[in-house]
Amino acid sequence: MSTVRLRRLQADFEKVSDYVRRHPRLQLIQTDGTPPERYQVEFQVKGLRQKGDELAVVASHMVEVLLPLSYPRMPPQCRMLTPVFHPNIAPHAICIGDHWSPGEPLWSILARIGEMIAYQSYNTRSPLNGEAAKWVEQHKDDLPLDPISLMPDEPPGPTAAAAAGPASAASAPATALVAATPPPPPAAAVPAPPATMAFACTSCRSMLKMPREMGGKRVRCPRCQAIIRAPGGPAEDSHG
User: Fold this and answer.
1) pLDDT for residue 225 is more than 70
2) Which end of the chain is more exposed for a tag (fewer CB within 10 A), N or C?
3) What is the pLDDT of residue 79?
4) Residue ranges of the UBC core domain (predicted)?
């Protein structure tokens, strides 16, 4: 094994391990090789499974990723170990795009597969499953099936209380805690915000429609594959 390939496999393994450890919906089930050349990963996200003529929502899916000898010049070989009904997933393969970039890390491939399972990402123009592509065109208003962000959780910043440090007993006399203030008047009812939000990708300017709970989280643009932050949440960490 070449030194370049060995370094890449080791870097992929370290980043995948960190990604899975930080994401609550992923679990690394098995690896083969040192460093690994084959991965089995469980995704605990909502996806579809076809059972006869009916579709069922299933919340656990197994994926196998094989890194061939030509990797990273050529893309990894990805397939489902449990069936998934999706335009770009067939029993023998998962289509991870028409253009492969050797610089894309393996954890990002796993994130893209999770986004596909959850129907956050799909391509109906050149499907592997034509029946699933037709289903998507008829049910776009019901998608995604699972709004969970597949981007790794960012380390939380220090809270205001933690930044201020422990309170000093001398700075707050016990008598100050006795005085009570009258309760504030009840707040007027505020209409609930819309369940979805629309915003433009900062890279390709295409319009994205996503659940409002994705506000402030990093998401992937289905059109240009850029990772951007959805508006509406806390400001982005200065470290990126």
Assistant:
1) yes
2) C
3) 98
4) 62-140
